[in-house]
Amino acid sequence: MNYLKRLSSITIILLLALAADTIAKEKPLKIYILVGQSNMEGQADLRVLDYLKDDPDTRGLHETIFDTDGNHTTIPNTWISYLTGGPDGDENGNREVSGTLQIGYGTQFRRDYSKPGTKIGPELGFGYAMQQFSREPVLIIKVAWGGQSLNIDFRSPSSGEYPKTESNANQFDTAEKRDRIAARTGNRYRQMIAHVKHVLSDISRVYPEYKSRSGYELSGFAWFQGWNDMVDRSTYPTRDQPGGYDNYSKWLANFIRDVRKDLDAPSMPFAIGVMGIGGPIELHEERYQQIHRNFNTAMAAPAHLDEFKGNVAAVETNQFWDLDLDAIDKKRGKVRQKEGQLKSKHPDHENADGSMSADDIKAFIQEYQKHLITEEDLALEAQARSNAAYHYYGCATTYSKIGIALADAIADLEARRARAEANKSRRKR
Question: What does the DSSP assignment read for 241-279?
Answer without folding.
Answer: STTTTHHHHHHHHHHHHHHHHHTT-TT--EEEEE--TTS
